Each structure stands twice: as structure tokens, then as C-alpha cells.
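User: My collaborator sent over this chain with a note saying "see what the structure looks like." That's all I know about it. Can you take a look?
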Amino acid sequence: MSEILTKPTEKKKKKSTAISDVRYACAVGATNTVVAIKGAVPIANCSPGCQLKTTAMLTFENGFQGSVAAGGGNMPSANSTENDIVFGGIKTLDQLIKSTIKIYDGDLFVVLTGCTGELIGDNVPDLVSKYQKAGYPIVYANTAGFKGNNLFGHEEVVDAIIDQYVGEYKGRKKKGLVNLWFETPYYNQNWRGDYQELARILRGAGLEVNVLFGPENPGVEAWKKIPKAQFNLVVSPWVGVRNAEHLEKKYNQPFLHIPEIPVGEEATAKFIRQVVEFAGIDNKKAEEFIKQEASIYYYYLEHFSEFFAEYWYGMPSEFAIVADASYALAYSKFLADQIGLIPKRVVITDNTPEKFRPAISEYFKNNISEGVSIDVDFVEDGYIAEQLVDSVEFTGGKPLILASSWELTLAEKKQALFFEITTPSSETLIINRTHIGYRGALQFLERIYSASVGGK
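Assistant: Without extra context I'll predict from the sequence alone. Here is the result:
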């Protein structure tokens, strides 16, 4: 009896859900989605530390992208305190909305609710509806961090603006007009340059492009044009698909989903032809554009080939990638199919929804390049991601590692060439850069092989 009483009780160990070295911000980081729309003002209904951390992760410690207007340190925030948690924060938010509307000459205001407001049950929809009825251009989005990351928050904000601001539409669609759904603003440090390059390519193919984010976004009027477009174009393995499905139901508007961001001549030409065929427009202009761009692209590659023929023996032949699904796929395809490098490890860190993972895994097994197949790992925990890459035995000389700032020490240990291609990116300043399409691919090659020559 005494043995039974003194024997320790065996408890079932709970699986930890904590992760280290995170590669994204929480859902309320979608305030940056709002900042990326000219004339739009985010209003963060959250604690003071929330915006400080998301701004640091997505702008400052991510290529030092900076911010404008109501972004960064100028972003309106409720800065919820213990008093708001105990007695409710709706009065604080109400005062913040009034002050923001008074101070900022915004064309659209977006209230994003963080964990605090949603946990205590503040009735944000009811508050915002009062301003909407009064004629103010304002919407709300539920973006509590416990619901998901900033990619999830991005999709929440997009749907909120469509439903509460764009509204209903029964008019005609304009043939050749396409809504571009592409990268999550501020998440990838090259997003601004990438948007410009992809829009340039689509225009070159003969399409009219409705750019919803970034330097070529004309403002909120672009969002009012969304229902008028012939179709929606989603260029991403998964982010934006949910929004396109919503638009299909709401406006009877078809969408084309292309998982692979095009990098290099072959991928970009294929991308253009696929979009033009879906649009059903005359392909003459597109083919002329492809011919012209290919001529310029291969002109530079021919000159590059002299360098490569001389120094190929010192160049990397194997690579590993730790990144979000979009760039893990795009860069792996380019490096393997066009440059001939061998992928040794691919780790996707953006918490890709389960329903998209089989298709992405299949792509890496059968569509990266002829005779090339690799199993992809979906891992959020930075420690585990690092261990996976550390376990790789590179056999082809100096390897190439494409990842985040978290992998810098590992790359030094592996004596690898190293580039930051995903969040966080604290070793690189980005003003205007792209690694996609025709022009971006050449810049990408410059980075890789300049580092090879320089021994970094």
C-alpha cells in the first residue's frame, strides 16, 4: 500500500507548441498590408508591444525597408493597457479612431484587432459600423495573433476591404484587365521590385494590370476597380488563393492560380503564355515581347558564360533553402532547372495550410527539373530548420545557402555562400531590388557569382 502511495504519478507529456527563431509576424502584422495601399491608414487595436515587434520584424529587420505615411512609428495604435483589459477597450479604440480620422487625410481606414481586443470581447464590428453609417471609409479585420501569422492576417484584410469597402458590383467586366495578387507586402524584402517587374511583364504581354500594393499602386481607387477586372491572377503557392475564391463567389470572377513565381527566361515565357491563353487575348504582342526580352536576357548570359567557363570549378553546385513557400519554390526551380545546381534540402517556414502542402510537395518531386526530385520539409521552428540544414552533407565543394538572418552562423559553420531571401533579413539594405522575371534573374545571378568570386 505504501509503495502505491509513494510511487510517482505518471503524467502524459504534452507536445510543446512553442517555436524559436520565428520567420514571420503575427496576424496583426497585416497593418503593413494596409500601409502598402496608397492613401490607406491602419489602426491597430492591440497592446503597445505588438506593433513595435511586427514593425521591427517586417520592415526594419527585414531589409531595412522603411515605411511611409501611417506606417512604422507613425502607425496609430490603441496601446491597450491593463485598464482596457479589465474594463474593456472599446472607448479607447473609439477615441483612437476619432483622432486618426482627424489627423490623417486618409482615403481608407482599416481597424485591425489584435489578441487583447478579441480575448476580452470588444465589439469592434459594432463600433466600426457606426462610422461606416456616418459615411467614413473605414473597415475592420479580425487579426488576433492567436489565429495565425501575418500571411493569414493579409488575407483577412483583403477580404475585409472587398466586403466592407468595395462592396457589391453588377456591372460588366473589362477584357484584358487583371487584378494582380502576388506577394504579401513587406514580408519578402524584395516585394516592391518584384511587383514592378511582374506588372511590367504582364503589360508587355498586352494586359492591363490593376496593381493593388506597392509603388505602382495608384491608391484605393484600384480596389474599387477589382470587380471590373476580367479575372484575378494569383502568383503564389497558396497566399491569395482564398481571396480569389472569395472574389469568384462574390463577383462571379474567374481566377488563374500559378503557384510558381517566374524566375529567368524559360519560366517567364511559360508564365506569359499561360496568362495570355487564360485571358483569351491576341498573343501577337506577347510573343513579340517574349522575343525581345529573351534576346536581351541571353545577350547578358552569353557574356556571363565567359566568366562561368573560366571559374566554374570554384562555383557552388549544391544548395539548401530555408524560406517561405513562394520563394523556396521559385528559387529552387531556377537554380536547379536553369543553373544546374542540386537541391540538398528545402525547408518551408511560413506555416503553409495543410490543404496546400501535398501539391507543393508534389511540385518539388516532379516539376523542379528533369531528373531532380527532393522531399520538402514544412517546419516553423527555427531550431529544427537549422538542424535539418546542419545535417546535410554537401559534397560538391562550397555550397549555397539561401535563408534568413537566423542561418548566418550556420552558413559560416558550413563555409557556405549565404544570402538572405526571407524574413528576417538584418544583413541587407533593400531600396529597390528584384530577383524575378527577366531582369531580376540576372540580378540574382550577379549576387551569387559575385559572392563566389569574392569568397563571401
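A starting point for your reply to your collaborator: The domain at 315-425 is CATH 3.40.50.1980 (Rossmann fold).
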